[in-house]
Structure formats: C-alpha cells, structure tokens
C-alpha cells in the first residue's frame, strides 16, 4: 500500500465520519491534525482541495495525489503517521487492510498486493543429513 493511498483513504474516512455525524472528538482532532500537517506541503489547487470535505478517495487522489508526490509529503513520516492514526480511528476495518507488520525478514518481497495477504514463514527445519554407508 503506497503512502498516497493511505493518506487519501484517511482523508476520505475522516470526511465521511464528519458528514455522517459519527465522528468522535478523537476522529475530528485526527482529521484536523492530518490536514494541518499536510497544509505546508500543498499549494494552489491542492490547498483548496485540502479545505474541502470530500468523502471519495478517488477525488482526493485526483486532486492531491500529484501534489503530495511532487512536494515530498507522501514520503514524510509525520504525514504517514497522522494518516494512519486518522484511518485507524475513523475506519478501523479499512485500516486493518493496510496494516503490514514485518518481523524478521530475510529476502526481498516486491509487487503490489490488492487484497489482505498473510505471509507466514516459520522457522524451517534443517533437512535430515544423508545416511553414510
């Protein structure tokens, strides 16, 4: 899951919670906090888009995706943390689909995952040595 996808999912979830009046104070604070963290990164039309309360991820992606990438906001740890916090509060079920935990990793995993994926690499048992004659 790319940082942009997490950011736009969080913005849409925060706006959706606000529109349906189901937002708790924590969600409202996290939504305002993410927007505050993003404001210095966006200019012009991106700034106007940030002030809107759009509930569709696709619209957020179209309006802010390029700006977040070009400005470097998509790679900022503080922006990612704020987006993850908001997504976890506003839409825990969706946040769970973005949760990736890596414990001990040996090797490279690449590609795009489009659904929840579980990779379980248990400690392998060494093969039995060949019998000696």
Summarize the structure.
The protein is built from six helices and no strands. By secondary structure, it is mostly helical.
Q: Note the run of SSEs as H and E.
A: HHHHHH
> What overall geometry do the principal axes of the alpha carbons give?
elongated
Structural class: mainly alpha
Major sheet attributes = none
Radius of gyration, rounded?
Answer: 20 Å
As a percent range, the share of strand residues is: under 5%
List the total number of helices: 6
End-to-end Cα distance: 54 Å
Mean pLDDT: 75
Number of strands: 0
Walk me through this protein's architecture.
By secondary structure, the chain is mainly α. The protein contains six helices and no strands. Helix 2 packs antiparallel against helix 5. It is elongated, with a radius of gyration of 20 Å. The termini are far apart.
Strand and helix layout:
Blueprint (H helix, E strand, L loop, with lengths): L2 H17 L5 H14 L5 H8 L5 H15 L5 H14 L1 H7 L35
Helix pairs in contact: 1-2, 1-4, 1-5, 2-5, 3-4, 5-6
Key words describing this protein structure:
mainly alpha, 133 residues, 56% helix, 6 helices
